[in-house]
Amino acid sequence: MLKTNICGIEFKNPVFLASGIMGETGSALKRIAKGGAGAVTTKSIGLNPNPGHKNPTIVEVYGGFLNAMGLPNPGVDEYLEEIEKVRDELNRMDVRIIGSIYGKDEEEFAEVAKKMERYVDIIELNISCPHAKGYGATIGQNPDLSYDVCKAVKKAVKIPVFAKLTPNVTDIIEIAQAVVDAGVDGLVAINTVRGMAIDIRAKKPILANKFGGLSGKAIKSIGIKVVWDLYENFDVPIIGVGGIMSGEDAIEYMMAGASAVQIGSGVYYRGYDIFKKVCDEIISFLKEENLTLEEIVGMAHE
Ligand code: ORO
After folding, report:
1. Are 213 and 19 in contact (CB under 8 A)?
2. What residues contact residue 120 under an 8 Å CB cut-off, 6+ apart?
């Protein structure tokens, strides 16, 4: 009932793991796969090892989490060994892999994408980390840089390429237009929303990086509106992410125009098997309303 096809790839369900949570090691990906995800997205991986920002890198706030991990990762060569360890098993479980990558410029993005291509089903371009200097949002807030990165990666690989967008822009349609013009196969929205928390006793920001990206329930309505706008303006598949905790949240994103959803912070609140729970909740809704998954994608626009 939840099988879906996106860019010619079959997914057993449209409820995926978002990048950044539990994506650091092969065994963590396997754990999420066992929790019922239709696909797992890796932590964003760069060309070289990166220790990330200093602690504290995460703090719980009203409605979610504020993080400034700083894209920590072991570098693409070492990370691919992690994927190699679990690839066959994920395949047997019918769980697809989305490889999230970042880089400092289009050459670096293309190089990492080429290395990843053989190990994953889709490449997700993280051009939207809110607090990585010289990477992430610096690229995703600039339509020309976004175009160049997407164009270079599209030229470098044959598998589908999705761009993950930042909501920290004045006009997300301008950025989305640039990446669609560059030929991306789909869009992922949204990355986290810039925020800050201050320890009033220490009288300074809590995160070592001072500011970070807000995820969780607090950003769901922002994500829904972005997905709605993207669906109105573009004819490529959209993966919705931001504050999804339940089947109802996932359905809301789908009715706004998402073909699939990703869950990150929700794993903390509902456990590793949140993917199975959300799928069951979607199925109950579809049965109650006598609808199919295909019918609900973009339904609120009609
Ligand atoms: N944090 C986010 O909120 N988004 C990203 O894309 C990456 C990070 C991080 O690694 O800090």
Report:
1. no
2. 42, 83, 97, 98, 99, 159
CB of 146 closer than 6 angstroms to any ligand 1 atom: no
pLDDT tens sequence across 19-64: 998 888 999 999 999 999 999 999 999 999 999 999 999 999 999 9
Q: DSSP code of 131?
A: T
Domain assignment present for residue 64? The answer is no
Q: Which atom of ligand 1 is nearest to the CA of 72?
A: 10
Burial of 27 (0-12, 13-18, 19+ CB in 10 A): exposed
Specify the CATH number for the domain of residue 260.
3.20.20.70
Is position 13 annotated in a ligand binding site?
no
Distance CA 3, CA 5 (A): 7
Helices marked H in 93-188: 106-116, 136-140, 143-156, 172-181
Number of domains present in the structure of the chain: 1
Mean pLDDT of 206-222: 97
Cα→Cα distances 215→17, 63, 75, 176, 263, Å: 14, 8, 25, 21, 10
Residue 55 in domain? no
Checking if the pLDDT of 164 tops 70, the result is yes
User: How would you class 295 by CB atoms within 10 Å of its CB: exposed for 0-12, middle for 13-18, buried for 19 or more?
Assistant: middle
- Indicate whether 116 belongs to any domain: yes
Expressed in angstroms and rounded, the spacing between residue 231 Cα and the centre of ligand 1 is 24
Hey, what are 152's tokens?
Answer: 């270079």
Predicted complex ipTM? 0.98
Domain range for 228 is 4-49+69-197+214-301
Q: Is 221 annotated as a binding residue?
A: no
**What is the model's pLDDT at position 302?**
77
Residue 248 structure tokens = 């109802």
Report yes or no on 40 lying in a domain. yes
What pLDDT does residue 134 have? 66
